[in-house]
């Protein structure tokens, strides 16, 4: 039979009525293409985000699930599917996604085709979709919008079992589908071209964009938005300006990747979502610089002076970009700003934990709070000052070497261990834990000065560390441990006064009452009676 829809059929010898396609499932010998060593990029760098192992969804694990998933699939245009495939098979993606590159070079057959299902399963762009697309839809998108690729249908002969009445499809094989190959080259040559690039080459081609309109949530919508505001390619001499189709075609060949940066402390495998900023990787530095010149980081002026109105079919994108403050910054400058910010952040954290309180806390006292009275007679003894003090003297301690990701509840249980020998619930002796996430130190207010001394003695006699954020019992340190032992020191003098100056007067008076009572227990009988009277009324 002649070739129909890129599928060649041959007639079998067993039956005149049976037709099967030619065998195309032969695997070629493994390619000799080797991936060169690439310097490891700093963890968390959005240029090369971590790729989590992709597992097939339950809907695609069996034939029945395929039909059900296809019937409920979200409608996407052929242009969007073509965009996702182009990003998946770009040089940057092949350089970044090593499992995909190995699949292309190891599973292609003698004709250079690889299963389309394998490409989709290893693509982070398709994995971000709620439901996987049907291969027939992808095939239509390739034929309509990706002339640089060739696609064909592959149908395998079902194995005969118990005569003519029943057939069994081998579940180990693909059982048919579509196959893809590049036109005019091979997967090995395409991967070798991607491997020839270095990390610094891609960094020089990466652009950071922010203030993306909030209505744009997907990579494809951002891609269409950028195609509407991208300045047309520069022309020299009397050449005519490009048409809209030529402009779009030129832009499609410039974009290598569009990614959303992962959020801070995101778990492995989490799919990043749009937060108004993204990273764009271009094929060469020239188009990246051309876009950056049109949308510079400095947005002080309301209009982009000197940048021509882009050649677009929609006049809404350009004013929308201006109104939202859309701007861009090369990756090298973005790295510099990030390093400056991280250095500034670490300096603030270190200063808050170890510097003198006079440098951390402003001495200015809010007018709504009571100003600390000063003794009228100089030379007053420390005991008399403590007796007439406006705050509970000796009830404040500073705890060091904590887990920065812990919480107040866990710390209160951990510190309450120091009083379990005297009372059933040691947490009652701990009045308040003044802890902020991200710091490894915190201030702790105890009920009495005796409780503060007992807490200091407890951690002085024991070498205990907090092994995890939720460790509320402490872990005894052994030789070779990388953890630091918890240290508790009493706060006094001017440092203690500055701390209590920032505490509201109501809470400060309650701490004074608690410190004056036996064992630091607050007398709440009068308060309970007042509540009862209010309830009766």
Automatic annotation (TrEMBL):
<dbReference type="Pfam" id="PF19977">
    <property type="entry name" value="xRRM"/>
</dbReference>
<dbReference type="InterPro" id="IPR045537">
    <property type="entry name" value="Lar7_xRRM"/>
</dbReference>
<feature type="region of interest" description="Disordered">
    <location>
        <begin position="511"/>
        <end position="537"/>
    </location>
</feature>
<dbReference type="GO" id="GO:1904868">
    <property type="term" value="P:telomerase catalytic core complex assembly"/>
</dbReference>
<feature type="domain" description="XRRM">
    <location>
        <begin position="390"/>
        <end position="536"/>
    </location>
</feature>
<protein>
    <recommendedName>
        <fullName>XRRM domain-containing protein</fullName>
    </recommendedName>
</protein>
<dbReference type="InterPro" id="IPR014886">
    <property type="entry name" value="La_xRRM"/>
</dbReference>
<keyword id="KW-0694">RNA-binding</keyword>
<feature type="region of interest" description="Disordered">
    <location>
        <begin position="363"/>
        <end position="383"/>
    </location>
</feature>
<feature type="region of interest" description="Disordered">
    <location>
        <begin position="28"/>
        <end position="73"/>
    </location>
</feature>
<dbReference type="InterPro" id="IPR012677">
    <property type="entry name" value="Nucleotide-bd_a/b_plait_sf"/>
</dbReference>
<dbReference type="GO" id="GO:0070034">
    <property type="term" value="F:telomerase RNA binding"/>
</dbReference>
<feature type="compositionally biased region" description="Basic and acidic residues">
    <location>
        <begin position="64"/>
        <end position="73"/>
    </location>
</feature>
<dbReference type="GO" id="GO:1990904">
    <property type="term" value="C:ribonucleoprotein complex"/>
</dbReference>
């Amino acid at each position: 039979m002649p070739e129909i829809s890129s599928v060649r059929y041959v007639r079998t010898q067993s039956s005149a009525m049976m037709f099967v396609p030619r065998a195309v499932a032969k695997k070629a010998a493994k390619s000799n293409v080797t991936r060169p060593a690439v310097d490891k990029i700093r963890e968390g760098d959005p240029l090369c985000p971590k790729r989590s192992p992709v597992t097939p969804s339950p809907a695609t694990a069996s034939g029945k699930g395929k039909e059900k998933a296809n019937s409920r699939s979200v409608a996407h245009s052929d242009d969007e599917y073509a965009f996702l495939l182009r990003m998946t098979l770009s040089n940057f993606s092949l350089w970044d996604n090593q499992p995909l590159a190995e699949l292309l070079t190891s599973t292609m057959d003698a004709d250079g085709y690889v299963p389309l299902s394998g490409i989709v399963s290893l693509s982070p762009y398709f994995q971000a979709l709620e439901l996987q697309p049907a291969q027939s839809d992808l095939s239509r998108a390739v034929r309509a919008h990706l002339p640089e690729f060739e696609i064909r249908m592959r149908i395998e002969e079902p194995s005969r079992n118990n005569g003519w009445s029943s057939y069994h499809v081998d579940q180990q094989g693909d059982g048919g589908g579509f196959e893809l190959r590049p036109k005019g080259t091979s997967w090995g040559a395409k991967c070798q071209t991607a491997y020839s690039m270095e990390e610094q080459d891609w960094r020089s081609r990466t652009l950071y964009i922010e203030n993306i309109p909030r209505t744009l949530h997907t990579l494809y919508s951002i891609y269409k938005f950028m195609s509407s505001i991208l300045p047309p390619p520069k022309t020299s001499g009397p050449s005519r300006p490009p048409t809209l189709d030529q402009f779009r075609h030129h832009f499609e060949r410039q974009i290598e990747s569009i990614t959303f940066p992962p959020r801070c402390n995101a778990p492995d495998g989490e799919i990043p979502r749009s937060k108004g900023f993204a990273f764009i990787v271009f094929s060469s530095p020239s188009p990246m610089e051309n876009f950056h010149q049109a949308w510079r980081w400095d947005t002080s002026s309301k209009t982009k002076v000197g940048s021509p109105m882009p050649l677009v079919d929609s006049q809404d994108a350009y004013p929308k970009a201006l109104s939202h403050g859309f701007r861009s910054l090369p990756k090298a400058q973005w790295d510099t700003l990030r390093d400056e910010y991280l250095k500034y952040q670490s300096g603030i954290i270190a200063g808050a934990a170890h510097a003198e309180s006079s440098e951390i806390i402003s001495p200015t006292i809010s007018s709504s709070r009571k100003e600390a009275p000063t003794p009228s007679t100089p030379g007053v003894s420390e005991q008399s000052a403590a007796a007439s003090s406006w705050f509970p003297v000796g009830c404040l301690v500073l705890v060091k070497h904590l887990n920065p990701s812990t919480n107040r509840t866990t710390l209160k249980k951990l510190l309450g261990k120091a009083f379990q020998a005297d009372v059933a619930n040691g947490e009652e002796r701990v009045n308040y834990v003044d802890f902020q996430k991200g710091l490894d130190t915190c201030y702790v207010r105890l009920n009495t000065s005796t409780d503060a001394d007992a807490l200091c003695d407890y951690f002085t006699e024991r070498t205990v560390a907090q092994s995890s954020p939720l460790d509320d019992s402490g872990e005894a340190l052994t030789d070779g441990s990388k953890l630091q032992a918890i240290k508790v020191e009493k706060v006094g003098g001017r440092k203690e006064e500055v701390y209590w100056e920032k505490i509201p007067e109501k809470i400060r008076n309650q701490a004074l009452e608690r410190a004056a009572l036996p064992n630091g227990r607050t007398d709440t009988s009068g308060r309970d009676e007042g509540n009862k009277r209010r309830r009766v009324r």
